[in-house]
Write a structure and sequence with these properties.
The chain has helices at 2-34, 70-79, 86-91, 105-108, 125-128, 139-142, 425-433; strands at residues 50-52, 63-67, 95-96, 98-99, 119-122, 131-138, 153-160, 171-177, 185-195, 200-203, 211-214, 217-221, 228-234, 239-240, 248-251, 254-257, 262-272, 282-286, 293-297, 308-314, 332-333, 337-341, 346-352, 355-360, 370-374, 382-384, 404-406, 411-416, 419-424. By secondary structure, it is of the alpha+beta class. The strands form 5 sheets. Strands 2, 3, 6, 7, 8, 9, 10, 11, 12, 13, 14, 17 and 21 form a 13-stranded mixed sheet that branches. Strands 1-22-20-19-18 form a 5-stranded antiparallel sheet, with no helix packed on it. The longest helix is centred in the first third of the chain and has 33 residues, at 2-34. The N and C termini lie far apart (60 Å).
């Protein structure tokens, strides 16, 4: 029986790959018809990355670490009956993602033309209507063996856009059980921030455009109106709620989280160093550096005339600070590298070895975005895949706000619209390398 099941999974895997290949070919044909209308300045390439001074200061993306007092965290955890683990959340799954062959034509249109996705899944409309998709991270970020405990996990962030005014912007994360890639189930967890000395919590109000799970910490980008650039969570501090109401926080009957059974309270935040400091709007993890680094970038407008900055924050190697960013005695976190890219419409960023992969959202009226491989090399400093008879670089997904590299499998995971998908990094690198951009280096 075990062997027969394995053969069925292999046949299904081949069928899904063939299906995705066929989808990519169909999208390539569509790109051929519209590529002429997608020609923009950025089709010629953004050129090489320009190194910037990495020292913190005016206009530099430095941060200040601010941790929630341990007593506050313990007070909240004790009042809620103690935290539960990631495994307990996965075991309580109540949602299932659809496989690629069950996705609609409209949903599959959000997949990249080149390089093609090798895995794809679709979220159900009834579970995501009124919610905007955001960042993706995985247990491949959390640990270099790709497993958290005994589980392989994908985290997918969403923000409320369709609820009552009091709910606008609430952020939730789907904990996706990825142990069986032929059957992904998930559970929603609401992101929260402790208040009143740990006696209560509020919902995080933010579009989570960037998210990284590193060791037991979860970093998410923040835009909820205060000076916090990032919130940090402890994955060992997921709490179970006991009231199913729409309220967020303590109620007369116990603890509620907008109807969700689990809530994750923040354990700290990283504040912007000054009003003119660039806000990290997309983040990813780079394990190819020593120490490991949190890669960050800022969004820019499509067709704008301002260059986007990309940079790195090193993770701490100090005992007792595992999973946190490297901070000095005053809690200041300084940038270790910074660059400038001429690419406009920047959304997601990923760095590995000497290459940076930067995604550009689809422009007005365009179906697809772009994914550029950039380095500091003066020759061929920027490359991207080509598709269509006119050789357009608009071959990537519509809008991928984050890129997460799972080293164990060699795949880059991301999402666009209601589609969660993965593409081998080797395919992204080789496809980009085959088509050098024609714009001269900066």
């Amino acid at each position: 029986m075990r062997h027969r099941g394995r053969h069925r999974r292999r046949r299904r895997g081949r069928a899904v790959r063939a299906f995705l290949t066929g989808t990519a070919l169909a999208l390539t044909a569509a790109a051929t018809m519209i590529s002429a209308s997608q020609a923009t300045v950025t089709d010629d390439g953004p050129g090489a990355l320009k190194p910037l001074a990495a020292s913190a200061g005016t206009g530099q993306p430095g941060l200040t670490q601010q941790l929630v007092p341990q007593a506050d965290l313990d007070r909240l955890a004790g009042a809620m009956g103690g935290p539960v683990g990631v495994g307990a959340v996965l075991a309580d799954a109540d949602g299932v993602l659809r496989d690629a062959d069950d996705c609609s034509t409209a949903e599959r249109a959000d997949l990249p033309v080149s390089p093609a996705a090798t895995r794809a899944y679709c979220w159900n409309a009834g579970d995501t209507e009124g919610w905007e998709p955001g960042a993706v991270t995985t247990s491949g970020d959390a640990d270099d063996d790709g497993v958290w405990g005994s589980n392989r996990v994908v985290l997918s962030a969403w923000s409320d856009t369709g609820g009552a005014s009091t709910d606008q912007g609430l952020a939730r994360v789907a904990f996706v059980d990825a142990n069986d890639l032929g059957h992904l189930s998930y559970t929603w967890v609401l992101l929260a921030v402790p208040v009143d000395g740990g006696r209560d919590y509020r919902g995080l109000v933010s579009h989570v455009s960037g998210m990284v799970w590193y060791q037991n910490r979860l970093f998410v980008t923040a835009d909820d109106g205060d000076s916090a650039a990032l919130y940090v969570y402890d994955m060992n501090r997921v709490q179970r709620t006991d009231v199913a109401g729409e309220v967020v926080g303590r109620t007369d009957g116990g603890w509620s989280a907008h109807g969700y059974r689990f809530v994750l309270p923040a354990v700290g935040s990283y504040l912007l160093d000054g009003a003119d400091a660039p806000r990290p709007t997309t983040i990813s993890l780079d394990r190819s550096t020593a120490p490991d680094t949190l890669v960050a970038g800022e969004w820019t407008l499509d067709g704008g005339d301002r260059s986007a900055r990309l940079w790195r924050y090193p993770f701490s190697t100090v005992a007792g600070h595992g999973g946190l960013l490297a901070a000095d005695a005053d809690g200041r976190v300084r940038v270790s590298e910074a660059y400038e890219t001429k690419l406009t419409g920047v959304r997601g960023v990923l760095a590995y070895a000497d290459a940076w992969y930067v995604s550009r959202a689809a422009g007005g009226g365009d179906r697809h975005g772009m994914l550029w491989r950039q380095t500091t090399a003066k020759k061929d400093g920027a490359r991207a895949a080509e598709c269509g008879t006119a050789g357009s670089h608009a071959c990537w997904s519509t809008r991928t706000e984050s890129l997460s590299y799972w080293a164990e499998t060699g795949e880059v995971w991301t999402q666009s619209g209601r589609v969660l998908f993965a593409t081998p990094l080797s395919a992204i690198a080789s496809t980009a390398s085959e088509h050098p951009a024609s714009m001269p280096a900066q």
